[in-house]
Amino acid sequence: MNKLLSCGIVAAAGLAFTVSSACASGSDLQAIMKARGLTEKDILAAAKTYQPSGKKDDYIVFSSGGQSGQVMVYGVPSMRIYKYIGVFTPEPWQGYGYDEESKAILKSGAIRGKQITWGDTHHPALTEKNGEYVGDYLFINDKANPRIAVINLHDFETTQIVVNPIMKSEHGGSFITPNSEYVIEAAQYAAPLDNGYHSMDEYEAVFRGAVTFWKFDYPKGKIDEKASFSLELPPYWQDLSDAGKGESFGWAFTNSINSEMYTGGIEKGLPPFEAGASRNDTDYLHVYNWQILEKLAQDKKNYMEINGHRVVTIDAAVKAGALFLIPEPKSPHGVDVTPDGRYIVIGGKLDTHATVYDFKKIKNLIDKKEFAGTDPYGIPVLDMAKSLQGQVELGLGPLHNSFDEKDGIIYTSLYVDSQIVKWDYKNLKVLDRINVHYNIGHLDTMEGKSSKPKGKYAIALDKLSIDRFNPVGPLHPQNHQLIDIAGAKMELLYDMPIPLGEPHDVVSIAASKLKPATTYTMGTNSRTGKESPFVTLAGQERVERNGKNVTVYATMIRSHINPEHIEVNKGDNVTIHLTNLERAQDETHGFTVDLYNIHASLEPGKTATVNFVADEEGVFPYYCTEFCSALHLEMMGYLLVKDPNKKYESAKASKLKTLSPEALKAEYDKVIATNKATDEVIQSVVTYLKEKHYEKYPKVKELVTDALDQYGKIPEVKAKADEAYKKGDVNGAILWEYQVWQYMVKTADVGLRAKNNLAKEIATPMSPAAAKGEEAYLKGGCNGCHVIGQVSSGPDLTGVLLRHENGEKWVFDFIKDPAKFYNDEYVKSMIDFFNLRMPNQHMSDQEIKDIIEYLKWIDENAGM
Ligand code: CUK
Ligand code: CUA
């Protein structure tokens, strides 16, 4: 790559290098590329994915965590992982499964009384409006133990788990109807819908498939189990599903993979499932109408009640014209409805084709009651050929689909060929293909399964990584590959090892559609979203005893837990309600007690509860588990568990020498002086804040309230110090004065943050010219050498216009042609000092004028 090109690429990509530095040291980039064996293409890929510090991602991806039972959150294009959300599996960092509020959620996922602490998550889905994604709630299914979880994207916490009352395994969940009316969950392996024993001989008579419609109560953010119902289906193994939209609104589609109803028996010498279940050339695509079914579910004569749940019968559905079958190439995999709802695309898996059904044709056949026959359960079967738009040969193992922003463009994963194929489902033409590494399952384009796909990037969810990463033992990470799909040819950008389960599927959403909270309203139970009845404010800390039940109401704020001693008897049932009193974002405290297997994460404003039976005698430190301040290690206390049946010797007196009265007095004077000096800093900040009317800026006001809150605690503590001193208890006075200092430090900490924010808020608004100037300044890469307000690899530009006589003209001429000034005394001294020359950035006259306006603005606001 030549030098000019490298400068151009680097500048366009906004890498940390600037044009000036890259050009001045272009050989460095060349050298790095050479040393690391990087091609020009690699550098381009890096430029498309690299996020400089502080820069945020355009898309947020929610990935199933597979067997980890969690959900993973990462960003595109950076592929940086942001969070693992505990869903079906305990997640210690978030206290999920270790505090009482979250244990209640996990407990609601118990099946037939059995607590299940893992899950096999497959398909995440977002709430939708008109088929477009809305960043309010996320749903995910558990294939192993048929369950659906709701995650509130207000705080990215799991708030509900519902257990499927009739299925014994599932796969086709979660799929959302276009206005989030229902969360659809389709079964996988057919089984009796009741919980009893049935022999395999009863397969056709008693084993059943099903699809469940979970009613989503949007205002409550909860699945309404009572309002939910299911549809009985034949014991064909139902599989992936998708809800219709647009033209096909009201309908939904589910694949199947064992319409042979083969029952296996390899151990008896029978052919295995894999042979018997793929015997026929075709399986069935289930086509059903949830709008008709929800009406049927209102009338007792249409449904059976199983485990307290309404199951609309096959017969009732058939009679009402709500259920049909269409043959599909055998053992298919994904089924995806196109953004406009017109077509349904099915990945062949064992067939090299993708099959495109035309809903218009399907609807036409249904309306005319033109059926090719019925299946053994009496369900009308439509003619496959008459339902088709067509088929396209894609390659080996087509699985899943995702759509492009451009009409008619679809991307399909090929598992066996390890490829993504880009093709046109309207004109049935293959357009491009790209190799992935290796054995791709799902793929996702940005918002790719919504009614308004954004395209731009595709993510390949590769099952095998084989040789792509440094080996970490026989269990390999999976590989999520980011692919640029904006151009005619797909281009591979990035490989991300996935260290968490087998993430079958992801769903992506524009980051701007997510509006998560940064703190909680004081006293929130995050799992209910409501105020906790156990919220404890400052001054309300207490320990209540009721027989063997000890209830502690505790608070946490930098940097103490109140109370600091909890004394109980062996065998007591101890409940500790904790409230984090912080209001500043990212000031999380954690809580644990040695030995008792509990942990809570208390984000600002949260109230959470831990509970344990103190069945071991002893002394157990408890502490804050988040490094929350310089005095985080001091944020602790002791749980003292006494055996009520034992007699303890009286306390042993300390034999350590104490300080002399003179030394004590000296220490006292020192702490008084420190406090006075600290208070002066606080007063100067407070004066600044008041002068500048901080109360007009909500964000700043929040911080000031927080700071004054801390400051307000000082008089009480100071009074204690003075009283101790008066009584001659100098040691006590010193300790209280230290506490005064603690409050001052916290006040100063938050106060200074408020001051910085305020300074930013009240900076005079930039004129359009100055704003353009800033843009030119940044585009030109001037910030590579000049940092405003600071000497960096070039001089600070604050006041530059005042440094020279006729400053504006001087700066203009200098930017225009720096070389002319290289022998100027002042410039020469600068060149010597920084060991760098100001390069000619070839700015236009207008750009230079704008930059001068920008520099003026900098000077006006220099005092901030
Ligand atoms: S399934 Cu795993 S690759 Cu569960 Cu969506 Cu296709
Ligand atoms: Cu609070 Cu560490």
UniProtKB/TrEMBL annotation:
Gene3D superfamilies: Cupredoxins - blue copper proteins, Cytochrome c-like domain, YVTN repeat-like/Quinoprotein amine dehydrogenase. Residues 547-654 form the Cytochrome oxidase subunit II copper A binding domain. It is found in: Periplasm. Residues 768-859 form the Cytochrome c domain. Coiled coil: none annotated. Residues 1-24 form the signal peptide. This is Sec-dependent nitrous-oxide reductase. The gene is nosZ.
